[in-house]
Structures are given as structure tokens and as C-alpha cells.
Amino acid sequence: MATVMEFTSPVAEFPLGSVFENLPGVTVELERLIPHETLIIPYFWVRDAETEDIEAAFDQHAGVSNIRVVDSVEHEYLMRAEWEQAYFGILSALAEANVVVLSGIGTKEGWKFEVRGESQAAIAEFREHCQENDIPIAITAVHAMLPIQGEGYELTETQREALIVAYERGYFDTPREVSLEEIADELDITQQSLSSRLRRGHRRLIGATLGSSV
């Protein structure tokens, strides 16, 4: 059964971590990431960057190269980078166990990840690789993918909880009866984490219900 694990890691243990030295107030959020043995070309969002030369701010970071901006919306930048095969760390552990990154959010306080393995064995292999190679991670949750009411719409427990609370509190009403900040406070998570859970939950539901027709 597919298994999801959430964990945290120190800033320096993941590529791009050194950016928080130059831009301590930014938030970096990874797009869905599938590690590969040869080369990883990820996309990631940078939020709250108070600089016009965002590419220069991200220059010279261990494990990444050719960083460039591909789009921007107000103070959010969508960036693209090539992650080098020679980098050893969490990426190598993910690739070794064939584990997919569902979300990754970084701030100056550290990284928060949600990853999915096709089985509990894959998650166990990832944990063992981290232990054997002294890669520090702190596991905060492990759970199986859950279908909703017997249907095939597989959501994680955290995605399901976020969607239900948002719906019940009137977040999807017009006008909204509650803010993203209020829901995040109720769930005791950051607004960035809540936004990611809602977005990934929407993606899964749309993919399961409309995917074949769009």
C-alpha cells in the first residue's frame, strides 16, 4: 500500500538551503519532484523575496546549477534549476528508494517534506539510507493513502483533513467565511503548508474525476 511520510530536515541538508543566508525572509516551495539517478530538473516557487535580481540571490548553491526565473506573479517567482548528480544528501536517499516528493517547503527555520513511497518498504528503505549516511531527518508523521468514502480518490490524511475543515468553515463559500490564516491556526500548521495541502488535494480530486476528460 502506498505510504506517506512527513519529516523535517535542517536547512543545510537540502540544495538551495544557503539562500536563506542572503534572503532570510523568503519561503521556497518545491513543485512535485521525482528523483532520478542521473539528473533532476525541478521547479520551485520563491515567495516574499524583496529583491529584483532574484536569480543573482540564488547563485552558487551546493548541488544546483543554471537557476533561472521562468515566471513571476507579484512577489512570487517560479524558478527552474538543474540539480547535480554529484550532490549526496536527501536527494540521493529519495532516488535510492524511489520515493516521490509530494511537497517540500523551506524557510530559514528548516525544510518540511511530505513524500510518498509505493509501499511501506520504500519508506523504510529511505529512512535506513538516511540513517546509514548520517542524513538528519525528524519524522513527524507516517500514514497510508486513504480513499474517500470508498471511491478511488486517494488523499493523504492531512490533505483530507485540510479540505474538510476548509469546506466546513466556509473557506470555499462566496464570500469566504474564514481566512486561510484562521484555518491554518486551527490545524496548527503554517499558511504555506495549508495552501500546499489544499492545492495537492484539489489536484488529486480533479485528476480522479475530470482527468480523463480534460
UniProtKB/TrEMBL annotation:
Residues 155-206 form the HTH bat-type domain. This is Bacterio-opsin activator. Keywords: Transcription, Transcription regulation. It holds the Pfam family BAT. Residues 24-133 form the Bacterioopsin transcriptional activator GAF and HTH associated domain. It comes from the Archaea. It comes from Salinadaptatus halalkaliphilus. The lineage of its organism: Archaea, Methanobacteriati, Methanobacteriota, Stenosarchaea group, Halobacteria. Coiled coil: none annotated. InterPro entries: BAT_GAF/HTH-assoc, HTH_bacterioopsin, RNA_pol_sigma_r3/r4-like, WH-like_DNA-bd_sf.
